[in-house]
Amino acid sequence: MIVVFGGTTEGKLVARFLDKRAAEYLYSTKTEIEPFFMKCGEYRSGVLDEEQMEVFFKRRNVTVIIDAAHPFASLLHETIAGVCLRLSLPVIRFERTYEIPEEAVHSSSVYYANSFPEAVDLLKALRPQRVLAMTGVQTIELLKPYWSGHEMKIRILPSGQSVISANKQGFPTGDLILLRPSGLLEEERRIITAYGIDCLLVKESGTSGFLPVKIKAAMTCGIRVVVVKRPLLPESFITVTTGAELNREIDRIGRIYHVER
Hints:
- The chain is α/β, with parallel strands linked by helices.
- It has two domains: 2-95 and 233-260, NAD(P)-binding Rossmann-like Domain (Rossmann fold, 3-Layer(aba) Sandwich); 102-228, Rossmann fold.
- The chain has helices at 9-21, 50-59, 74-87, 116-126, 144-147, 160-168, 185-194, 211-220, 243-260, and strands spanning 2-5, 25-29, 41-45, 64-67, 91-94, 110-113, 131-133, 152-156, 176-178, 199-203, 224-228, 238-240.
- The strands form two sheets. Strands 3-2-1-4-5-12 form a six-stranded parallel sheet, with helices on both faces. It has a six-stranded parallel sheet with strand order 6-11-10-7-8-9, sandwiched between helices.
- Helix 5 (144-147) links the parallel strand 7 (131-133) and strand 8.
C-alpha cells in the first residue's frame, strides 16, 4: 500500500499519477477536504502523531510513503521521517517548484527571513506603515509579536472555520481580508493598492502557492516584500519534481522491496 500525504496541488497530481499506474493508495490530509475523483485511492483525514502513524502503517501494510504536503507542514514532515526511519520505509517527497521573477533575485526590495520570529524582527527594523501578511490563518499566532503593536492586515480563506480560528487567536476581525488567492497579478495589485499596503509578507510557498505573482505584485507596486523561507526537509527524503521521476522511484523502491522482503 502507498500512502500519500496531500491536501495540496501536488497531492492531487500524485493521485492522478498513481491512478494512471493503477496503483492502490491512501490519500491522507490533516483536515477534511472537498472530495475529488480517485480511481484507485482511498481517503482519510485527521492528524496522526508518531505512535498513531506507526500503528497505521503497520496495520495497512504500507510500503511507500509519498509526502506531497505543504512545504511549511514541518511537524508532519518530521513525524513521517521519524516513523519511517524506525520502520525502514522509504519516503518520496513530491516537491513543487520555487522560481521567483528574475528581477527579484537581486532586488533590494525583497528581503528573506529564515523563520517567522526572524520575519517579525525584520519587519520591526523596516518600519513599514501597513503590512499585508499573505501567510494564512495558521501563522497568526506566530505573527502576534508584530500585529499586537503594529498595523497589519492578514489575508485568510473566506470560510467560517478560518474566521473562528483567527478570532480565537485574538486577531482583530476588522483587519482580516477574506479572500481566496486568485493567482492573478492584477488582483494582487488591486488588494495592495486598495488597503494602502506598503510591505508584503509572504511564505516561500512556490509556484503553486503563487509566490512569483505575489512578489511581482509587490515590486510593480513599488513596495517591499519579506519572504519567509521554507523549512528544510528531512535528509532521508527522496525528492522528485515530475511524474516521470515519481514513477522511476516507485519502480526502484518496488524492486528493492520485493528483493529484501
